[in-house]
UniProtKB/TrEMBL annotation:
<keyword id="KW-0560">Oxidoreductase</keyword>
<dbReference type="InterPro" id="IPR036188">
    <property type="entry name" value="FAD/NAD-bd_sf"/>
</dbReference>
<protein>
    <submittedName>
        <fullName>FAD-binding oxidoreductase</fullName>
    </submittedName>
</protein>
<dbReference type="InterPro" id="IPR006076">
    <property type="entry name" value="FAD-dep_OxRdtase"/>
</dbReference>
<feature type="domain" description="FAD dependent oxidoreductase">
    <location>
        <begin position="4"/>
        <end position="355"/>
    </location>
</feature>
<dbReference type="Pfam" id="PF01266">
    <property type="entry name" value="DAO"/>
</dbReference>
<dbReference type="GO" id="GO:0016491">
    <property type="term" value="F:oxidoreductase activity"/>
</dbReference>
<dbReference type="GO" id="GO:0005737">
    <property type="term" value="C:cytoplasm"/>
</dbReference>
């Protein structure tokens, strides 16, 4: 089977890239997803943050581009309700050490042109009156927000499908192959060989094993995160919340439920295959609930209706790998998003389409290149 472009990975980055390529007039596009459903991995398991504040300065321009150019009109473009809400992000602190950390993060972002500022206890509680008295301050970015990962990923998939993109599920990739020095073949687990002019590898942590087959490697780990969802509550607040202690993050959805995420506890030390669907461990649930209650006491009696875990492809330096590879012409990488990939996905996918079509991307992405690990 031949195509102009093969995209490995059917998450939001892969689906959105297929859409933007089809929109540019590329006719023969194949998306390969190893699981049974599109967006089965991190794209449907994240907390929905569309965040610029607190990011590494190397990826901050990508996050800012996504917020400025794509998110405000995405629901209309895709014909779905992405539930995009731009009511700011409060990153909360309870100690002077927390405030020092938040101040440094805010200064880094302000130096890059982002509107983010420190607020004292009074202003933080004015912005969100549900906060605990233990919160002594926060950083606040008014242009941050959140959206619904499920409807957004589905929107990109449906639009791409309408435009003639071929999606294949249960399509597990075994490796890549160079022909005359160019990466042009995809070897499937059943032995079938697919060929394309350009191959985009956007398969999360699975990208590492796939690129290993042609001698490439990224120092990257699969890190587990957990999410919980509460029952529907009366409307309380619209901001995205995070903490300097990184003990939880989350927001209230349009439906009324709260979605909170946290770094996993015991799961991180258990032998769990990344492709397995799991509920959060009871110890993780308890720790997350205690953290949330410590910042938002009004939620102390809220009931948890479901939980899940997901996997983050985390690079050794904390930012993604994005762009072509010098020693592997024909291949473009888009992986290692460190749990930040949902919010930046529209901008990332748009620029992947630009690169595939031989155009100069909207941003200078040299800081995110593969070769940085070996320079």
């Amino acid at each position: 089977m031949k195509a102009d472009v093969i995209i490995i990975g059917g998450g939001i980055v892969g689906s959105a890239t297929a859409y933007y390529l089809a929109k540019r007039g590329v006719k023969d596009i194949i998306v390969l997803e190893s699981s049974a459903s599109i967006g089965h991995g991190a794209s449907s398991r994240n907390g929905g943050g569309v965040r610029q504040s607190g990011r590494d300065v190397r990826e901050l321009p990508v996050a800012m581009l996504a917020v400025q150019k794509f998110w405000p009109t995405l629901s209309e473009e895709l014909g779905v309700n992405t539930e995009y809400t731009q009511e700011g992000n409060l990153r909360l602190g309870k100690t002077e050490a927390h405030m020092k950390k938040l101040n440094q993060l805010a200064d880094n972002c302000k130096a890059m042109g982002l509107d983010v500022r420190m607020v004292d206890k009074q202003e933080a509680h004015t912005i969100n009156p549900y906060l605990s008295d233990d919160v002594i301050g926060a950083s606040f970015c008014p242009t941050d927000g959140h959206a619904n990962p499920l409807t957004t990923t589905l929107g990109y998939y449906m639009k791409a499908l309408e435009m003639g993109v071929h999606f294949y599920t249960h399509a597990k990739v075994k490796g890549l192959k160079k022909i005359k020095g160019k990466v042009s073949e995809v070897i499937m687990s059943d032995g079938e060989v697919l060929s394309a002019k350009t191959i985009i590898l956007a398969a999360g942590y699975a990208s590492r094993a796939i690129m290993n087959t042609i001698g490439l490697d990224i120092p990257m780990d699969d890190v587990i995160d957990g999410c919980i969802v509460t029952e529907m509550e009366p409307k309380m607040f619209s901001q995205m919340l995070g903490t300097a202690a990184a003990d939880f993050y989350g927001h209230q959805t349009h439906h009324g439920s709260f979605v909170f995420g946290a770094v996993a506890g015991p799961e991180a030390y258990m032998d769990i295959p990344p492709e397995t669907t799991n509920f959060a461990h009871p110890d993780t649930l308890g720790a997350t609930c205690r953290a949330v209650e410590g910042y938002i006491p009004a939620l102390a009696r809220s009931k948890i209706v479901r939980s899940w875990t997901g996997w983050c492809d985390c690079t050794s330096d904390g930012v993604c790998v994005l762009g072509p590879v010098e020693e592997a012409p024909g291949l473009i990488l888009a992986c290692g998003f460190n749990g930040h990939g949902f919010g930046t996905a529209p901008a990332v996918a748009y620029m992947l389409a630009q690169m595939t079509c031989g155009e100069k991307p909207l941003l200078d992405l040299s800081a995110l290149r593969y070769e940085r690990f070996y320079d």
